[in-house]
Amino acid sequence: MRNGLLLLLLALAGSAQANIVLPRVLGHNMVLQRDKPVAIWGTAAPGEAVAVQFGAQSPRTVADASGHWQVMLKPLAASATPADLTIKGNNTILLHNILVGEVWLCSGQSNMEYTMRKSSKVTLPPGADTTAVHELDRAHDPAIRIFLVNRKELIKPDSLHRGWSVAQDSALRSFSAPAYFFAKELHQKLGVPVGVVSSAVPGSRIEPWIAAEAFQQDPAFAGQKVAGDPAKFYEPMIRPLAPFALRGFLWYQGESNCFLAETTNYTQKMRLLIQNWRAAWGDATLPFYYVSLAPFKYSESKDNKGTLTTETLPRFREAQEAVLQVPHTGLIVTTDLATNLDDIHPPYKWEIGRRLALLALAATYRQANVPASPVFRSLAVKGNVATVNFTTSAPLISKDGQPLTHFTIAGADGVFVPAQARLKGQQVLVSAATVPHPVAVRFGWDEAAQPNLFSASGLPARPFRTDH
User: Fold this and answer.
1) Domain range 4-99, its CATH number among 2.40.30.10, 2.60.40.10, 1.10.1740.10, 3.40.50.1100
2) Cα–Cα dist 95/54, whole Å
3) Domain 101-364 CATH assignment equals 3.40.50.410
4) pLDDT tens digits for range 20-41
Protein backbone atom coordinates (compact mmCIF):
# COMPACT_ATOMS: atom_id res chain seq x y z
CA MET A 1 0.00 0.00 0.00
CA ARG A 2 1.51 3.33 -1.03
CA ASN A 3 -0.48 5.62 1.25
CA GLY A 4 -3.92 6.81 2.32
CA LEU A 5 -4.57 8.00 -1.22
CA LEU A 6 -4.20 4.47 -2.56
CA LEU A 7 -6.58 3.05 0.04
CA LEU A 8 -9.25 5.52 -0.94
CA LEU A 9 -8.72 5.07 -4.66
CA LEU A 10 -8.77 1.31 -4.38
CA ALA A 11 -12.24 1.42 -2.91
CA LEU A 12 -13.43 3.22 -6.00
CA ALA A 13 -11.34 1.10 -8.33
CA GLY A 14 -13.06 -1.97 -6.98
CA SER A 15 -16.48 -0.67 -7.89
CA ALA A 16 -18.54 -2.12 -10.73
CA GLN A 17 -17.35 0.58 -13.12
CA ALA A 18 -13.66 -0.18 -12.38
CA ASN A 19 -12.68 3.17 -13.83
CA ILE A 20 -9.11 4.39 -13.99
CA VAL A 21 -8.58 7.00 -11.28
CA LEU A 22 -5.73 9.52 -11.22
CA PRO A 23 -4.16 11.38 -8.30
CA ARG A 24 -5.13 15.05 -8.18
CA VAL A 25 -1.67 16.27 -9.08
CA LEU A 26 -2.13 14.79 -12.57
CA GLY A 27 -4.50 17.07 -14.43
CA HIS A 28 -5.23 19.58 -17.16
CA ASN A 29 -2.75 22.47 -17.46
CA MET A 30 0.04 20.71 -15.59
CA VAL A 31 3.73 21.04 -16.32
CA LEU A 32 5.77 17.86 -16.69
CA GLN A 33 9.39 17.94 -15.59
CA ARG A 34 11.81 18.07 -18.52
CA ASP A 35 14.92 15.90 -18.89
CA LYS A 36 13.82 13.32 -16.31
CA PRO A 37 11.73 10.15 -16.42
CA VAL A 38 8.12 11.14 -15.67
CA ALA A 39 5.81 8.88 -13.68
CA ILE A 40 2.13 8.65 -14.63
CA TRP A 41 0.20 6.57 -12.11
CA GLY A 42 -3.16 5.81 -10.61
CA THR A 43 -5.52 2.96 -9.81
CA ALA A 44 -7.77 0.67 -11.82
CA ALA A 45 -9.31 -2.76 -11.50
CA PRO A 46 -6.72 -5.45 -10.67
CA GLY A 47 -5.37 -6.82 -13.93
CA GLU A 48 -6.79 -3.98 -16.02
CA ALA A 49 -4.66 -2.99 -19.02
CA VAL A 50 -3.67 0.67 -19.01
CA ALA A 51 -2.19 2.63 -21.93
CA VAL A 52 -0.75 6.14 -21.74
CA GLN A 53 -0.16 8.35 -24.77
CA PHE A 54 1.91 11.54 -24.75
CA GLY A 55 3.61 12.82 -27.88
CA ALA A 56 5.38 9.92 -29.54
CA GLN A 57 5.41 7.83 -26.38
CA SER A 58 2.80 5.20 -25.57
CA PRO A 59 3.85 3.10 -22.56
CA ARG A 60 1.52 0.35 -21.37
CA THR A 61 1.09 -1.61 -18.16
CA VAL A 62 -1.34 -3.76 -16.20
CA ALA A 63 -2.75 -2.82 -12.80
CA ASP A 64 -1.32 -5.04 -10.06
CA ALA A 65 -3.30 -7.15 -7.62
CA SER A 66 -3.98 -4.14 -5.44
CA GLY A 67 -5.17 -2.09 -8.41
CA HIS A 68 -2.15 0.15 -8.59
CA TRP A 69 -0.49 0.96 -11.90
CA GLN A 70 2.35 3.19 -13.04
CA VAL A 71 4.16 3.87 -16.28
CA MET A 72 7.23 5.98 -16.97
CA LEU A 73 7.57 8.46 -19.79
CA LYS A 74 11.12 8.76 -21.04
CA PRO A 75 12.78 12.16 -20.46
CA LEU A 76 11.04 14.94 -22.37
CA ALA A 77 12.40 18.10 -23.94
CA ALA A 78 10.99 21.41 -22.72
CA SER A 79 7.95 22.53 -24.68
CA ALA A 80 5.63 25.52 -24.40
CA THR A 81 3.33 24.03 -27.05
CA PRO A 82 0.19 22.68 -25.35
CA ALA A 83 -0.29 18.94 -25.77
CA ASP A 84 -2.77 16.30 -24.64
CA LEU A 85 -2.05 13.30 -22.46
CA THR A 86 -4.34 10.29 -22.77
CA ILE A 87 -4.84 7.42 -20.31
CA LYS A 88 -6.92 4.49 -21.55
CA GLY A 89 -8.30 1.47 -19.75
CA ASN A 90 -11.92 0.58 -19.17
CA ASN A 91 -12.43 4.31 -19.43
CA THR A 92 -10.48 7.07 -21.14
CA ILE A 93 -9.08 10.19 -19.49
CA LEU A 94 -7.90 13.03 -21.73
CA LEU A 95 -5.78 15.73 -20.05
CA HIS A 96 -5.47 18.97 -22.04
CA ASN A 97 -2.98 21.83 -22.29
CA ILE A 98 0.09 20.02 -20.91
CA LEU A 99 3.50 21.71 -21.07
CA VAL A 100 7.01 20.44 -20.35
CA GLY A 101 9.49 22.47 -18.33
CA GLU A 102 10.62 22.92 -14.73
CA VAL A 103 8.60 21.85 -11.68
CA TRP A 104 9.22 22.82 -8.02
CA LEU A 105 7.42 21.95 -4.79
CA CYS A 106 7.10 24.90 -2.37
CA SER A 107 6.22 24.30 1.28
CA GLY A 108 6.35 25.76 4.78
CA GLN A 109 4.16 27.92 6.96
CA SER A 110 2.34 31.25 6.54
CA ASN A 111 5.20 33.10 4.87
CA MET A 112 5.15 30.53 2.06
CA GLU A 113 1.36 30.38 2.02
CA TYR A 114 1.26 34.22 1.84
CA THR A 115 -1.05 34.83 -1.10
CA MET A 116 -0.79 37.01 -4.16
CA ARG A 117 -3.97 38.70 -2.91
CA LYS A 118 -2.10 39.87 0.20
CA SER A 119 0.91 40.82 -1.88
CA SER A 120 -1.25 43.08 -4.03
CA LYS A 121 -2.27 45.08 -0.93
CA VAL A 122 1.24 45.78 0.38
CA THR A 123 1.96 49.42 1.15
CA LEU A 124 5.48 50.44 0.22
CA PRO A 125 7.53 53.45 1.36
CA PRO A 126 7.27 56.61 -0.76
CA GLY A 127 9.32 56.39 -3.92
CA ALA A 128 9.55 52.59 -3.88
CA ASP A 129 9.01 50.58 -7.05
CA THR A 130 5.43 49.29 -6.91
CA THR A 131 5.59 47.17 -10.07
CA ALA A 132 5.46 43.84 -8.23
CA VAL A 133 2.53 44.97 -6.06
CA HIS A 134 0.40 45.19 -9.21
CA GLU A 135 1.48 41.81 -10.58
CA LEU A 136 -2.03 40.36 -10.27
CA ASP A 137 -3.30 42.92 -12.77
CA ARG A 138 -0.77 41.83 -15.38
CA ALA A 139 -0.13 38.14 -14.78
CA HIS A 140 -1.36 36.06 -17.72
CA ASP A 141 1.66 34.10 -18.93
CA PRO A 142 0.39 30.69 -20.08
CA ALA A 143 3.87 29.21 -19.53
CA ILE A 144 3.60 29.57 -15.73
CA ARG A 145 1.34 27.01 -14.07
CA ILE A 146 0.28 26.63 -10.43
CA PHE A 147 -1.12 23.85 -8.26
CA LEU A 148 -2.44 24.73 -4.79
CA VAL A 149 -2.60 21.78 -2.41
CA ASN A 150 -5.81 21.54 -0.42
CA ARG A 151 -5.10 19.57 2.75
CA LYS A 152 -8.52 17.92 2.81
CA GLU A 153 -8.85 17.31 -0.92
CA LEU A 154 -5.47 16.07 -2.20
CA ILE A 155 -6.03 12.45 -1.17
CA LYS A 156 -9.53 12.31 -2.67
CA PRO A 157 -10.21 11.19 -6.25
CA ASP A 158 -10.97 13.98 -8.70
CA SER A 159 -12.83 13.20 -11.90
CA LEU A 160 -12.49 16.79 -13.15
CA HIS A 161 -8.67 16.95 -13.13
CA ARG A 162 -8.71 20.72 -12.61
CA GLY A 163 -6.10 21.14 -9.86
CA TRP A 164 -3.59 22.93 -12.11
CA SER A 165 -4.21 26.45 -13.43
CA VAL A 166 -2.51 29.04 -15.55
CA ALA A 167 -1.03 31.59 -13.14
CA GLN A 168 -3.64 34.32 -13.46
CA ASP A 169 -6.98 35.62 -12.19
CA SER A 170 -8.72 33.98 -9.23
CA ALA A 171 -6.44 30.95 -9.11
CA LEU A 172 -3.39 33.17 -8.74
CA ARG A 173 -5.04 35.42 -6.15
CA SER A 174 -5.15 32.49 -3.73
CA PHE A 175 -1.70 31.16 -4.57
CA SER A 176 1.65 31.55 -2.82
CA ALA A 177 3.38 34.82 -3.72
CA PRO A 178 6.92 33.54 -3.05
CA ALA A 179 6.26 30.47 -5.20
CA TYR A 180 4.78 32.52 -8.04
CA PHE A 181 7.58 35.08 -8.14
CA PHE A 182 10.12 32.25 -8.02
CA ALA A 183 8.42 30.70 -11.03
CA LYS A 184 8.26 34.01 -12.86
CA GLU A 185 12.00 34.63 -12.38
CA LEU A 186 12.90 31.11 -13.49
CA HIS A 187 10.71 31.38 -16.57
CA GLN A 188 12.26 34.70 -17.55
CA LYS A 189 15.81 33.44 -17.09
CA LEU A 190 15.41 29.90 -18.50
CA GLY A 191 12.85 30.52 -21.23
CA VAL A 192 10.93 27.32 -20.48
CA PRO A 193 7.55 26.65 -18.83
CA VAL A 194 7.58 26.50 -15.04
CA GLY A 195 5.12 24.75 -12.76
CA VAL A 196 5.01 25.33 -9.01
CA VAL A 197 3.13 23.34 -6.38
CA SER A 198 2.33 25.16 -3.13
CA SER A 199 1.72 22.98 -0.09
CA ALA A 200 1.89 25.16 3.03
CA VAL A 201 0.03 25.60 6.31
CA PRO A 202 0.10 28.84 8.35
CA GLY A 203 1.54 28.46 11.83
CA SER A 204 2.88 24.98 11.18
CA ARG A 205 5.99 23.65 12.85
CA ILE A 206 8.48 21.51 10.97
CA GLU A 207 7.57 18.20 12.65
CA PRO A 208 4.19 17.67 10.91
CA TRP A 209 5.92 17.85 7.53
CA ILE A 210 8.05 14.78 8.27
CA ALA A 211 6.88 11.16 7.99
CA ALA A 212 6.43 9.40 11.33
CA GLU A 213 8.59 6.50 10.19
CA ALA A 214 11.39 8.93 9.37
CA PHE A 215 11.54 10.01 13.01
CA GLN A 216 11.37 6.40 14.16
CA GLN A 217 14.26 5.35 11.94
CA ASP A 218 16.53 8.30 12.68
CA PRO A 219 19.08 7.70 15.50
CA ALA A 220 18.62 11.25 16.81
CA PHE A 221 14.90 10.69 17.47
CA ALA A 222 14.45 6.90 17.72
CA GLY A 223 12.55 5.89 20.83
CA GLN A 224 11.56 9.47 21.62
CA LYS A 225 8.12 11.01 21.64
CA VAL A 226 8.40 13.87 19.17
CA ALA A 227 6.16 16.86 19.89
CA GLY A 228 4.49 18.77 17.10
CA ASP A 229 2.17 16.16 15.53
CA PRO A 230 4.61 14.29 13.24
CA ALA A 231 3.25 13.58 9.75
CA LYS A 232 0.03 15.59 10.29
CA PHE A 233 0.72 17.50 7.08
CA TYR A 234 3.19 15.14 5.44
CA GLU A 235 0.61 12.39 4.95
CA PRO A 236 -2.18 14.46 3.33
CA MET A 237 -0.09 17.18 1.67
CA ILE A 238 3.33 15.79 0.66
CA ARG A 239 3.24 12.00 0.34
CA PRO A 240 0.37 11.97 -2.23
CA LEU A 241 2.42 14.23 -4.53
CA ALA A 242 5.17 11.63 -4.99
CA PRO A 243 6.35 10.41 -7.45
CA PHE A 244 5.28 13.44 -9.53
CA ALA A 245 8.53 14.38 -11.26
CA LEU A 246 10.04 17.65 -10.11
CA ARG A 247 13.33 19.52 -10.04
CA GLY A 248 13.50 20.41 -6.36
CA PHE A 249 12.00 21.88 -3.20
CA LEU A 250 11.59 25.35 -1.68
CA TRP A 251 11.08 25.71 2.08
CA TYR A 252 9.96 28.83 3.97
CA GLN A 253 9.34 27.82 7.57
CA GLY A 254 10.85 28.21 11.01
CA GLU A 255 9.00 30.94 12.85
CA SER A 256 6.89 28.46 14.84
CA ASN A 257 10.01 26.54 15.89
CA CYS A 258 11.93 29.74 16.63
CA PHE A 259 9.27 30.59 19.21
CA LEU A 260 10.38 27.36 20.96
CA ALA A 261 13.97 28.70 21.02
CA GLU A 262 15.18 25.67 19.09
CA THR A 263 18.71 25.54 17.71
CA THR A 264 20.60 22.30 16.99
CA ASN A 265 17.38 20.33 17.42
CA TYR A 266 15.87 22.25 14.51
CA THR A 267 18.95 21.54 12.41
CA GLN A 268 18.44 17.82 12.99
CA LYS A 269 14.76 18.01 12.10
CA MET A 270 15.44 19.96 8.93
CA ARG A 271 18.08 17.47 7.83
CA LEU A 272 15.58 14.71 8.47
CA LEU A 273 12.87 16.47 6.45
CA ILE A 274 15.22 16.86 3.48
CA GLN A 275 16.23 13.20 3.69
CA ASN A 276 12.60 12.13 4.04
CA TRP A 277 11.36 14.11 1.05
CA ARG A 278 14.24 13.08 -1.17
CA ALA A 279 13.58 9.45 -0.26
CA ALA A 280 9.88 9.85 -1.12
CA TRP A 281 10.89 10.94 -4.62
CA GLY A 282 13.69 8.39 -4.85
CA ASP A 283 16.39 11.00 -5.53
CA ALA A 284 18.98 11.92 -2.89
CA THR A 285 20.23 14.83 -5.02
CA LEU A 286 17.03 16.89 -5.31
CA PRO A 287 17.87 20.54 -4.53
CA PHE A 288 16.43 22.02 -1.34
CA TYR A 289 16.49 25.82 -1.06
CA TYR A 290 15.17 27.71 1.94
CA VAL A 291 14.70 31.09 3.59
CA SER A 292 16.65 32.43 6.57
CA LEU A 293 14.16 34.16 8.87
CA ALA A 294 13.65 37.91 8.65
CA PRO A 295 14.02 40.37 11.56
CA PHE A 296 11.21 40.16 14.13
CA LYS A 297 10.96 41.06 17.82
CA TYR A 298 10.51 37.56 19.22
CA SER A 299 11.68 38.72 22.65
CA GLU A 300 8.86 41.28 22.83
CA SER A 301 6.16 39.01 21.44
CA LYS A 302 3.11 38.11 23.50
CA ASP A 303 4.06 34.49 22.84
CA ASN A 304 7.35 34.86 24.73
CA LYS A 305 7.13 32.69 27.83
CA GLY A 306 10.40 34.02 29.16
CA THR A 307 12.71 31.90 27.02
CA LEU A 308 13.15 34.27 24.07
CA THR A 309 15.88 36.90 23.98
CA THR A 310 17.22 39.25 21.34
CA GLU A 311 19.70 36.49 20.41
CA THR A 312 17.10 33.78 19.88
CA LEU A 313 16.58 34.65 16.21
CA PRO A 314 20.30 34.87 15.34
CA ARG A 315 20.88 31.50 17.00
CA PHE A 316 17.97 30.01 15.10
CA ARG A 317 19.35 31.36 11.83
CA GLU A 318 22.62 29.71 12.78
CA ALA A 319 20.74 26.41 13.13
CA GLN A 320 19.25 26.98 9.69
CA GLU A 321 22.68 27.74 8.27
CA ALA A 322 24.08 24.49 9.69
CA VAL A 323 21.80 22.62 7.28
CA LEU A 324 23.96 23.88 4.41
CA GLN A 325 26.29 20.98 5.26
CA VAL A 326 23.70 18.78 3.55
CA PRO A 327 24.56 18.51 -0.15
CA HIS A 328 22.46 20.36 -2.73
CA THR A 329 21.02 22.92 -0.30
CA GLY A 330 21.01 26.71 -0.33
CA LEU A 331 19.81 29.60 1.83
CA ILE A 332 18.76 33.18 1.15
CA VAL A 333 19.24 36.14 3.51
CA THR A 334 16.27 38.41 4.32
CA THR A 335 17.62 40.87 6.91
CA ASP A 336 16.59 43.80 4.68
CA LEU A 337 13.03 42.73 3.90
CA ALA A 338 11.14 43.51 7.12
CA THR A 339 9.23 46.79 7.25
CA ASN A 340 7.64 46.27 10.68
CA LEU A 341 9.53 44.37 13.38
CA ASP A 342 6.22 43.51 15.06
CA ASP A 343 4.95 41.76 11.91
CA ILE A 344 6.25 38.24 11.36
CA HIS A 345 5.21 38.42 7.69
CA PRO A 346 7.68 40.58 5.75
CA PRO A 347 5.88 42.00 2.71
CA TYR A 348 8.48 41.76 -0.05
CA LYS A 349 7.52 38.28 -1.22
CA TRP A 350 8.52 39.08 -4.80
CA GLU A 351 12.07 39.54 -3.60
CA ILE A 352 11.91 36.30 -1.58
CA GLY A 353 10.88 34.47 -4.75
CA ARG A 354 13.56 36.18 -6.82
CA ARG A 355 16.32 35.35 -4.35
CA LEU A 356 15.25 31.71 -4.18
CA ALA A 357 15.36 31.68 -7.97
CA LEU A 358 18.92 33.03 -7.85
CA LEU A 359 19.93 29.98 -5.79
CA ALA A 360 18.37 27.67 -8.35
CA LEU A 361 19.83 29.52 -11.32
CA ALA A 362 23.33 29.32 -9.85
CA ALA A 363 23.44 25.86 -8.28
CA THR A 364 20.82 23.84 -10.17
CA TYR A 365 20.89 25.40 -13.64
CA ARG A 366 24.60 26.28 -13.51
CA GLN A 367 24.22 29.79 -14.84
CA ALA A 368 27.27 32.04 -14.53
CA ASN A 369 27.58 35.33 -12.69
CA VAL A 370 24.45 34.91 -10.57
CA PRO A 371 24.47 37.28 -7.55
CA ALA A 372 24.85 35.85 -4.05
CA SER A 373 24.95 37.29 -0.53
CA PRO A 374 28.37 37.98 0.98
CA VAL A 375 29.25 35.23 3.49
CA PHE A 376 31.80 35.32 6.31
CA ARG A 377 34.99 33.46 5.37
CA SER A 378 37.68 34.20 7.94
CA LEU A 379 38.88 36.51 10.70
CA ALA A 380 42.38 37.88 11.19
CA VAL A 381 43.46 40.04 14.15
CA LYS A 382 46.38 42.46 14.14
CA GLY A 383 46.75 44.82 17.06
CA ASN A 384 43.37 46.29 17.94
CA VAL A 385 41.82 45.66 14.53
CA ALA A 386 39.89 42.56 13.50
CA THR A 387 39.81 42.03 9.73
CA VAL A 388 36.79 40.14 8.41
CA ASN A 389 37.09 38.43 5.05
CA PHE A 390 34.02 37.56 2.99
CA THR A 391 33.21 35.20 0.18
CA THR A 392 31.47 37.39 -2.38
CA SER A 393 31.18 37.62 -6.14
CA ALA A 394 30.64 41.38 -6.13
CA PRO A 395 32.25 44.32 -4.31
CA LEU A 396 31.11 45.03 -0.77
CA ILE A 397 29.22 48.27 -0.22
CA SER A 398 27.30 50.21 2.40
CA LYS A 399 23.79 50.14 0.97
CA ASP A 400 22.89 53.58 2.26
CA GLY A 401 26.37 55.09 2.04
CA GLN A 402 26.54 55.42 5.83
CA PRO A 403 29.09 53.80 8.20
CA LEU A 404 28.59 50.03 8.48
CA THR A 405 26.14 48.98 11.15
CA HIS A 406 25.53 46.04 13.51
CA PHE A 407 29.11 44.93 14.06
CA THR A 408 30.14 44.12 17.62
CA ILE A 409 33.51 43.06 18.95
CA ALA A 410 34.84 41.36 22.09
CA GLY A 411 38.13 40.68 23.80
CA ALA A 412 39.11 37.69 25.91
CA ASP A 413 36.40 38.58 28.46
CA GLY A 414 33.71 37.73 25.89
CA VAL A 415 31.88 41.00 26.41
CA PHE A 416 30.65 42.33 23.07
CA VAL A 417 30.47 46.06 22.51
CA PRO A 418 29.39 48.12 19.50
CA ALA A 419 32.22 48.44 17.00
CA GLN A 420 33.32 50.76 14.27
CA ALA A 421 33.51 48.98 10.93
CA ARG A 422 34.86 50.23 7.64
CA LEU A 423 35.31 48.75 4.21
CA LYS A 424 38.68 47.99 2.72
CA GLY A 425 38.19 46.28 -0.60
CA GLN A 426 36.56 42.93 0.06
CA GLN A 427 37.32 43.16 3.76
CA VAL A 428 35.73 44.87 6.74
CA LEU A 429 38.00 46.32 9.43
CA VAL A 430 36.37 46.17 12.87
CA SER A 431 37.55 47.84 16.08
CA ALA A 432 36.43 49.47 19.31
CA ALA A 433 38.33 51.84 21.58
CA THR A 434 37.48 49.73 24.64
CA VAL A 435 38.74 46.46 23.10
CA PRO A 436 42.54 46.69 22.65
CA HIS A 437 42.93 42.98 21.94
CA PRO A 438 39.91 41.68 20.01
CA VAL A 439 39.29 37.95 19.71
CA ALA A 440 35.76 37.73 18.26
CA VAL A 441 33.37 39.61 15.99
CA ARG A 442 29.63 39.38 15.55
CA PHE A 443 27.55 40.82 12.73
CA GLY A 444 23.79 41.26 12.67
CA TRP A 445 23.58 39.32 15.93
CA ASP A 446 20.25 40.72 17.12
CA GLU A 447 16.65 39.95 16.24
CA ALA A 448 16.05 43.54 15.11
CA ALA A 449 19.28 43.98 13.17
CA GLN A 450 18.88 45.29 9.62
CA PRO A 451 22.53 45.81 8.60
CA ASN A 452 23.63 47.94 5.68
CA LEU A 453 26.53 45.74 4.51
CA PHE A 454 25.60 44.50 1.03
CA SER A 455 27.17 43.30 -2.15
CA ALA A 456 27.15 45.71 -5.07
CA SER A 457 24.66 43.31 -6.69
CA GLY A 458 22.09 44.29 -4.05
CA LEU A 459 22.11 41.33 -1.66
CA PRO A 460 22.63 41.66 2.12
CA ALA A 461 25.55 40.02 3.92
CA ARG A 462 24.67 36.95 5.98
CA PRO A 463 24.78 37.48 9.79
CA PHE A 464 27.51 35.58 11.61
CA ARG A 465 29.54 35.23 14.78
CA THR A 466 33.12 34.03 15.14
CA ASP A 467 32.75 32.90 18.76
CA HIS A 468 31.34 29.39 19.24
Assistant:
1) 2.60.40.10
2) 10
3) no
4) 999 999 999 999 999 999 999 9
